[in-house]
Design brief:
Strand order of the largest sheet: 2-1-6-5-4-3
Number of helices: 3
CATH class: Alpha Beta
Structural class: alpha+beta
CATH architecture: Roll
Order of helices and strands: HHEEHEEEE
Distance between the termini: 64 Å
Helix content: 40-55%
Shape: globular
Oligomer: single chain
Strand content: 35-45%
């Protein structure tokens, strides 16, 4: 009985890192998908519902120009832009994240990368970005975004 207990303890010590690695992989995959959605929603400005879901109420965003935006201000800016008359040939913005790095520290994660952007077919100023996420109520929410050229 003592031997069985010892073997069980040893097995669990060796299995715990494997379980943690699987959870980290799941978190990285989830964060990668969320980050892609968030970047597309921020830069396309078309999906208020996605931004409302992914941004924490206390989210702060900083642009390459040094401007700071709250979640409420960003959503209001997008609503205002959507209410303006539509152009006959609307522009299409494509966002392509590369060099994405994800670091998870418990319930906090830092995702950084490079955003290549095309407006219609012309490449426009790419930028580096950092999104900080916190897991709240079991869901990841962005709490900070910073972009620079």
């Amino acid at each position: 009985m003592k031997r069985l207990l010892t073997y069980s303890l040893i097995a669990s010590i060796f299995c715990l890192p494997l379980l943690a690695r699987g959870q980290a992989k799941d978190s990285n995959e989830e964060l990668s998908n969320l980050d892609r959605k968030l970047n597309e929603a921020i830069y396309s400005g078309n999906d208020i519902a996605v931004l409302d879901e992914l941004l924490a109420d206390d989210w702060q965003g900083r642009t390459a120009l040094g401007e700071t935006h709250s979640k409420a201000a960003l959503l209001e800016q997008i609503k205002k832009a959507k209410s303006e008359p539509k152009k006959k040939n609307p522009s299409k913005l494509e966002v392509a994240p590369t060099e994405v790095r994800i670091h998870v520290y418990g319930d906090t994660a830092v995702v950084s990368g490079f955003l290549g952007m095309k407006l219609n077919v012309e490449e426009i100023s790419p930028s580096r970005y950092v999104n900080v996420y916190m897991r709240r109520g079991g869901k990841w929410r962005a709490i900070s975004t910073h972009a620079c050229s």
